[in-house]
Amino acid sequence: MLLAGVDVGGTNIGVGLVGDDHQVHHRAKEDTPTSVDALVAQVSRMVRSLDGTPEAVGIGIPGIIHDDRVVQAPNLEGWTAETDVAAQLSADLGVPVSLVNDAQCGLVGEWVAGAGQGSDFLFGVWLGTGVGAGMVLDGKGYDGANGGSGEFGHLVVRPGGARCGCGRRGCIEAYAGRRMMTESARALAAAGRKTSLFEHQEERGKAKATSGVWAAALAEGDRVVTEILDEAVAALGIGVANVCNLLDVDRVVVGGGMAGKLGQPFADRIAAAARPHAVRKMADSMVVVAGLGDDSGVVGAAEIARGRLG
Ligand SMILES: [Zn+2]
After folding, report:
1. What separation in Å is there between the alpha carbon of 165 and the centre of ligand 1?
2. What is the mean pLDDT of residues 281-297?
3. How many whole angstroms from 220 Cα to the centroid of ligand 1?
4. 246: which strand partners?
5. pLDDT of residue 35
6. How far is the CA of 21 from the centre of ligand 1 (A)?
7. What is the C-alpha separation between 85 and 45, in angstroms, rounded?
8. Sorting pLDDT into bands at 50, 70 and 90, what band is 70?
9. How many CB atoms neighbour CB 246 within 10 A?
10. Rounded to the nearest whole angstrom, what is the distance from the C-alpha of residue 49 to the centroid of ligand 1?
11. Termini Cα distance of the chain
12. Burial, 28: exposed, middle or buried (Cβ in 10 Å; 0-12, 13-18, 19+)?
């Protein structure tokens, strides 16, 4: 059976044709358009352009999704709960279309074909512009009563701490989301600290400080970047320990751009930061970096679409 998985990000849309072996057989990638109508038309065209006809389509969206509807998608303009993208695309393509949170898609992809294989109690942290999360509990994807369960990025690790994009203070995302980390670096630079972060950004011709830009500045020992990343690791460690204490998961997958660039040593640092706060002993290999890279969202979205076919 062939399924299509779609990964909608703030910058790019990735589409892939996925087989029963969870391999991506054919893929396409384009920039994310600004309007929802344009996005529907583009996803439809991209799915049709694939080398085969899928029996169902799964779409990962950065936001809170419930019953195939977007409840909240702060990083995508013009999306509201009234916008029924799944129904529009389903009518257009003539196959069932499922809408799911993107981090949940990423984790399900890692569960069936990547670093989460073999675990039925799995937690996934996705580090990108913000901090997303997904979970598989007792062998099933879990997204809560209202689709809002993966808000790991807004667990408070420091009451009264740094201001988060959500308006609250002390959230994990305020320390470990790339957008907030970049704002911290900018504030420190404005206060007179020296950092090469923005020079690396310019050198690479990027509109924002991407994970690659961060990794480059870190590799040369930039003090400001090192300090901000240390804080991110500390915040993530507290969060991961709390999740382990609450849910007793047996593996934590760390994915997203920053994890891809920094690799397993970064996951090991998060585990080390978590250990002092964990009630149960955390196994050495408990926190692992995602194995499928950019494909995890596409593979997971396709798998969720397959599951919905029943
Ligand atoms: Zn927050």
Report:
1. 6
2. 95
3. 30
4. none
5. 86
6. 38
7. 14
8. confident
9. 10
10. 38
11. 13
12. middle
Q: Is 293 left (phi over 0), alpha (psi -120 to 50) or beta?
A: left
Sequence-distant (≥ 6) Cβ neighbours of residue 46 within 8 angstroms: 6, 13, 15, 28, 30
The stretch 237-264 carries a mean pLDDT of 97
Per the rule left: phi > 0, alpha: psi between -120 and 50, beta: everything else, 169 is beta
HEC string of 152-220 equals: HHHCECCCCCCECCCCCECECHHHHCHHHHHHHHHHHHHCCCCCCHHHHHHHCCCCCCCHHHHHHHHHC
One-letter amino acid at 162 equals A
**How many Å lie between the centroid of ligand 1 and the Cα of residue 174?**
6
Interval between CA 256 and ligand 1 midpoint (Å)? 18
* Structural domains of the chain ordered from first start: 3-108+294-309 (3.30.420.40), 119-291 (3.30.420.40)
pLDDT at 304: 96
Residue 104 Cα to ligand 1 middle (Å):
19
CA of 162 to the centre of ligand 1 (A): 10
163 CA to middle of ligand 1, Å?
8
The CA 116 to ligand 1 mean position distance, Å, reads 27
Gap from CA of 34 to ligand 1 centroid (Å): 24
CA of 282 from ligand 1 middle (Å) equals 27
> Cα dist. 81→62, 78, 85, 86, 273 in Å?
14, 10, 10, 12, 38
Tokens found for residue 245? 């204490």
Instruction: Give the tens place of pLDDT for each residue, 71-99.
Output: 888 777 777 777 889 999 999 999 999 99
What does the pLDDT look like over 172-199, one tens digit per residue? 999 999 999 999 999 999 999 999 999 9
Residue percentage of the chain with pLDDT more than 90: 86
pTM: 0.94
User: Do the Cβ atoms of 252 and 215 come closer than 8 Å?
Assistant: no
- Could you tell me the distance, in angstroms and rounded to a whole number, from the CA of residue 131 to the centre of ligand 1? 9
The pair phi, psi for residue 88, each rounded to 5°, is: -60, -45
